[in-house]
Amino acid sequence: MSINHFSKDQMKEFQYNPYVDKVSSKAVTYSEEFKNLFLVEYSKGKLPTQIFIEAGFDPSVLGRDRIANFSKRIRKMGNRPEGVTDLRGQNSGRPREKDRTKNEEIAYLRHQVALQKQQIEALKKANSINRKAAKTIAKRNSN
After folding, report:
1. CB-based contact 88:96 (threshold 8 Å)
2. Across the chain, where does the E strand assignment appear?
3. CB-hemisphere CA count at 13 Å for 19?
4. What is the rounded distance in angstroms from the CA atom of residue 130 to the CA atom of residue 114?
5. For every one of its 143 residues, what pLDDT tens digit does the chain have, with 9 covering 90 and above?
6. Residues 30, 21: contact at Cβ < 8 Å?
7. Residues 29-51, buried b or exposed e (16+ Cβ, 10 A)?
8. Gap between the Cα atoms of 47 and 55, Å rounded
9. Distance (Å, rounded) from C-alpha 143 to C-alpha 136?
10. CA atoms lying within 13 Å on the CB side of residue 117
11. What is the rounded CA–CA span in Å between residue 27 and residue 24?
């Protein structure tokens, strides 16, 4: 399955549409206003393609798959408590800290100390091995 890229003229046409936030050669980012409008019109019984046409989009440029995928994604977003709000900037990445009880925090810190002790011991062994190897090489070179 290949992506139908938009031409520069098509991208300019999308940029003039008030329901478009961003457009690239591969994708269109629709405004929150359009997403809400889509949900309202869809709940009234309109078909997704008809909603896009009435909003000023050319369905032949977007393609059937883009419209179908948008429809599916927005209907799913409509069921969330946040609605169609874009959460990508807010929920990205791994959370830095968890809410822990005091006992969980103590257990976590004990685990960290044990891990660091193991790392120190491994470094000591590596250092010892390196020193022995250096002495052996020094003996061979002096003979």
Report:
1. no
2. 20-23, 28-30
3. 14
4. 24
5. 567 888 999 999 999 999 999 999 999 999 999 999 999 999 999 999 999 999 999 999 999 999 999 999 999 988 888 787 777 777 666 766 778 889 999 999 999 999 999 999 999 999 999 999 999 998 888 87
6. yes
7. ebbeebbebbbebbeeeeebeeb
8. 13
9. 11
10. 6
11. 5
pLDDT tens, position by position, 54-92: 999 999 999 999 999 999 999 998 888 878 777 777 766
Collapsed DSSP state (helix, strand, coil) of residue 20:
strand
Per-residue pLDDT at 78? 84
* DSSP single-letter state for residue 21: E
Dihedral sign (CA 67, 70, 76, 81): negative
Whether the CB-CB separation of 34 and 71 falls below 8 Å is answered with no
Alpha-carbon distance of 114 to 141, in angstroms, equals 41
Question: Is 11 exposed, middle or buried, given 0-12, 13-18 or 19+ CB atoms closer than 10 A?
Answer: middle
Structure tokens at 66: 């883009």
Residues in the chain: 143
